[in-house]
């Protein structure tokens, strides 16, 4: 039996299910090592946070192209000349980006409780397929929406509109870590949202609060899965 009033939960993937900050930092560190240099991981991640949305805001390109352009811009910000024939290192590393430690168990608990699970992600389908091999096989294929499928990147509404079309009348919650990419646009579209606030970020005071705020995916499962057999 599905607890409370939701039938479907969709997730952002990178940052919510998968530790993309660690993945990006490790990929840059590996590439820097190849060049005989080092980078400050938190500074790289901070620059990437700023630069990737700028690249995604332009004309739609594949996520592989977005990653390559963002890598060039980040490298340039640190006075590193990234050779064109090595700008695919982020895309090549993406399937190895690790899930958060609580992700697999939380997903299994939610699936076993009767929720149908999906993903709304700013990636190409083949890149996401690599990540899915590291996650439990609990997702409904029809509820996986990529940027490649809709031709745009969140926070644009394409993912949410396509998910709404596929979900239909079923009761739906979207869960994500990024306020910018997910929580804010979901709220603007009237979609109930759970903010998985892994970074303990402060909520902007000028925007409505999400339906639910939790620090981890495990806490989201705790909130949504009833432990009372009579419930």
Automatic annotation (TrEMBL):
The taxonomic lineage of its organism, from the top, reads: Bacteria, Pseudomonadati, Planctomycetota, Planctomycetia, Isosphaerales
Among PANTHER family, the record links this protein to: ACID DEHALOGENASE, PUTATIVE (AFU_ORTHOLOGUE AFUA_6G14460)-RELATED, HYDROLASE, HALOACID DELAHOGENASE-RELATED
* The protein's name in its UniProt record: (S)-2-haloacid dehalogenase
- Alphabetized UniProt keyword annotations: Hydrolase
Q: Which Pfam families match?
A: Hydrolase (PF00702)
**Signal sequence residues:** none
Q: Which organism is it from?
A: Tautonia plasticadhaerens
Q: What SUPFAM superfamilies does the record tag this protein with?
A: HAD-like
Q: Which GO terms describe its molecular function?
A: (S)-2-haloacid dehalogenase activity
Q: Which domain of life is it from?
A: Bacteria
Q: Which InterPro entries match?
A: HAD-like_sf (IPR036412), HAD-SF_hydro_IA (IPR006439), HAD_sf (IPR023214), S-2-haloacid_dehalogenase (IPR051540)
Known EC number: 3.8.1.2
């Amino acid at each position: 039996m599905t607890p409370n009033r939701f039938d479907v939960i969709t997730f952002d993937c990178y940052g919510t299910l998968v530790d993309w900050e660690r993945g990006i930092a490790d990929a840059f560190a590996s590439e820097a090592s190849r060049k005989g240099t080092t980078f400050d991981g938190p500074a790289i991640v901070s620059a990437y946070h700023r630069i990737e949305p700028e690249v995604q805001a332009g004309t739609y390109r594949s996520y592989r192209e977005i990653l390559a352009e963002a890598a060039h811009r980040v490298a340039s910000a640190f006075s590193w000349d990234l050779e064109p024939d090595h700008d695919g290192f982020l895309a090549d590393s993406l399937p190895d980006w690790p899930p958060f430690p609580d992700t697999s168990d939380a997903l299994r608990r939610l699936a076993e409780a009767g929720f149908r699970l999906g993903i709304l992600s700013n990636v190409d389908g083949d890149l996401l397929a690599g990540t899915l091999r590291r996650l439990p096989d609990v997702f409904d294929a029809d509820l996986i929406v990529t940027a490649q499928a809709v031709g745009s990147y969140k926070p644009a509404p394409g993912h949410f509109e396509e998910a709404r079309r596929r979900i239909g009348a079923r009761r739906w919650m979207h869960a994500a870590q990024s306020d910018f990419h997910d929580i804010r646009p979901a709220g603007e579209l009237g979609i109930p949202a759970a903010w998985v606030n892994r970074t303990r970020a402060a909520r902007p005071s000028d925007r409505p609060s999400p339906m639910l705020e939790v620090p981890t995916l495990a806490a989201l499962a705790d909130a949504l899965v009833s432990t009372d057999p009579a419930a």
